[in-house]
Every structure is written in C-alpha cells, then in structure tokens.
Amino acid sequence: MSKRGWIGVDLDGTLAQYDNWVSPDRIGDPIPLMVARVKGWLGQGVEVRIMTARAWNAPQEVIDCIQDWTEKHIGHRLPVTCTKEDGMIQLWDDRAVGVVPNSGLRAESVLHAALKRHHEWHQEDGLEMKLGDVYFDCASAYCDSSLEEETTAALAGYQP
Q1: Which domain holds residue 113?
Q2: Cys-Cys crosslink for 26: which of 2, 22, 39, 160, Cβ 3.0 to 4.6 Å?
Q3: Per-residue pLDDT of the chain (160 residues; tens, 9 = 90+)
C-alpha cells in the first residue's frame, strides 16, 4: 500500500459507462475523464483500487473480468474490493454524498454557502460575478429544500 493511503474508484457509472445491469462480465465503455484521472494518480505513485458492489461474494472470474477491463483501459490490473478498508483517503462514486467530517453537513452545502457568501461580498463591492451568477442559477435549479436549509445553517457558521 502507498504511504499516502489509497483511493477507491467505483466502477459502474464512475469509471465505466452504466445504463443498466446486463451481467457480471459486461462492463461499459470507459469514461475518459476518470480514466485519465486514475492514470494520473497511478503516475504519481498513488494506490488506486476499484471499489464495486460487483465484488461482493463474487467468484474469482468476476474479479478477473474487472481486472482485465482495468488492464485494457488503464494499463494496470487494479485491486478490486467492495469494502472501505483502512487507509482509504478518498472514494470516487456516482452515488456517494460527501459529508463534512463530524458535522452531518453535506460538503456541497458548505461549498454552496462559501460561494454564495463570496458572491454577496462582491455584489456589495459593486463587482459583477458573471460566473457566480451562472453557478447560483444552476445550483438553484437542482437544489432541494434540504440543501437550502443546510446552506443557511452553513452560512450562519461560516467564518471567512
């Protein structure tokens, strides 16, 4: 294991295209941005593991299929797991929700609050924030009420 720990990368929907379940040996096409990211980490000496539910009680043939896929598309037979083992420093997954440690707050609510506060400060200074305006329009379009509540809570405790 790397001295810096290891990064877990989900397979279906994160590293490989996923539309629906077909079979254990059917893995979608690679997602180029994630493949490049994984190759970059490996090039820096970071250990990367495929973290997938496919590995749960899987026969060796399923693990081999995943490793064949990673060898073909990434150039390495990466370890495959389905557990958060000691030393994991990050998990990249299309279904995970990031949480600020020891707070219960979604990480995106804190980021949203910080960007919103930054945007408000620049408005007070008379500066236009075109990119910020676009971000907040987009954020408002997808935010559910719980994110708005968490953003308000995060803003209340936000210290620049």
Answers
A1: 107-157
A2: 22
A3: 445 799 999 999 999 999 988 888 899 999 999 999 999 999 999 999 999 999 999 999 999 999 999 999 999 999 999 999 889 999 999 998 888 888 787 777 777 677 776 666 656 655 554 444 434 434 443 444 455 565 566 556 544 4
Is the residue at 46 inside a domain? yes
Kindly write down the DSSP assignment for every residue of 80-95, as one continuous string: EESS--TTEEEEE-SS
In a domain, 99, yes or no: no
CA dist., res. 78 & res. 76, Å (int): 6
Q: What is the reported pTM?
A: 0.69
Query: What torsion, rounded to 10 degrees, do the Cα atoms 40, 4, 96, 84 define?
Result: 130
37 and 112 within one domain: no
Q: Give the count of alpha carbons within 13 A of 112, CB side only.
A: 24
**End position of a domain, from candidates 92, 127, 145:** 92
